[in-house]
Amino acid sequence: MVLKMIDTPVFAIAMAAAGVPQKQSRRVVALEQKLRDAQLDFEKGIRYADGAGLAKDMQKAAGHHRKAAETDHMPAQYNLADLLDSRAPALSRQAAESGYPGARNNLALMYANGPGVTQDYVMAYGRLDVLQRR
């Protein structure tokens, strides 16, 4: 509900009343729009991947997840890495280091099994150990 009010005149008045400079309130609005766009791309990627309401198209799904992932949308980074499978260990690593649990698990499995990375049981155990401590 609060996010929907950010780009309204009421929000602008509240920000001014709170003493927030207009330049900063514009940044908040721009950041909120960026996050909203990333979420929409993420959701559209899921719909293309699942064929839910759209023709199933994995390339379009990856494109939408990639667009959202570029804005540091962690679930999109994770889904893109999953779509690209072993060709995207860097995205899995990025999402894992950002704290996304599913990505940490996938990265540990990559190191344990070797797809896309050099098999390394020490790294696999280390990634699983971090996941278990969370």
What does this entry show, briefly?
This protein has eight helices and no strands. The protein has 134 residues and is an all-alpha fold.
Describe this structure in words.
The chain has helices at residues 2-5, 9-17, 22-50, 58-69, 74-84, 89-97, 101-113, 121-133. With 134 residues, it is mainly alpha-helical. It has a domain at 89-134. The chain is flat, with a radius of gyration of 19 Å. The two termini are 30 Å apart.
Structural descriptors:
single chain, 8 helices, 75% helix, mainly alpha, 134 residues
Main sheet: strands, sense, barrel: none
Residue windows where pLDDT falls under 50 for at least 5 positions? none
Q: In angstroms, what separates the terminal alpha carbons?
A: 30 Å
Count of discrete alpha- or pi-helical segments spanning 4 or more residues = 8
Give the topology string: H per helix, E per strand.
HHHHHHHH
Report the C-alpha radius of gyration, rounded.
19 Å
Mean pLDDT: 80
Percent of residues in helical segments? over 70%
Which outline best applies? flat
Could you tell me the number of beta strands?
0
Structural class: mainly alpha
Indicate the proportion of strand residues.
under 5%
